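Form 7-S
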Amino acid sequence: MRYRPFGASGGAVSSLTLSLGAEAAARGPAHIRDLVFAGLEAGVNVYHFERPDPMLLQAAGEALAHVERRLLWVSLALGEDRDFSATGLGRSIEQGLHASGLGWFDLGVLDHPAEDELPQTSLTALKAMRKAGHVRMLGVSGDEPVTDLYVSTGAFDVLLTPFNANVPWHVRSRMKAARDREMSLFACDWFPDSLSTERRAAEAGAVKKRGLFGAVGWGGGRGDAGAEARGSFAFLHRTPGWTGEAICLAYALADPAVASVLVRPRDRAHLEEMAAVPERDLPAGLSAQIEMARVDSPA
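Output:
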């Protein structure tokens, strides 16, 4: 695992963040604890809870209790069921701390708030909880136009943002605006369906074979660059020694502006595979190939 400086605190965070949500919770406490232990063994020191689920928080808290609290960096998504009221946010933080036994959250993240969902009273309440030491930093996540407004307020320390090989220009612009305001960046959605679908990748690179009367039809095979449509990312799935997922994760990690990348592993083995990626460098020329595909991709 590699570590990166975080904010002005002088601390360091692991380049991967273990993100735990509904999928992990559905498999029960034992699965959650196993994932957390796997993360600790891999050197992950950042953990994000996608929901204030008491069972999820309790199971993860039991595993994290084996490490000195000051060595961990833990964040909690706020605004479940679209409740961004001062009472709702305060209840989520208090119940989360009670269930997890963590003592404090390093970051409270407002999860995709709409323009009219965060009254000033709620922001005031969050600042009061920060002053009391229940939560140390405030963040916001989102990919809607209103996210730009939240970034511009200067009220937040962290932005959780989608970031992948084909991310649109407005996301890159938002990331730059956040950095200009000294916000730290956490990346998510680094392997979206548009890049992960094996069928689309295979079809984009399939060889066109000529039939009996010279008609062109689709056949099997790897194909060549000429057979691929402009903007195709099929090559992500045909790079020797790499999976498309690993390439996309490495691409997100290659941006020095990103403090950490959120991962949602299926199980321990999947987490171990992803934990090996920060130690690898992308093959020569692949970054340029990704950039050319991104520029040629349909808007």
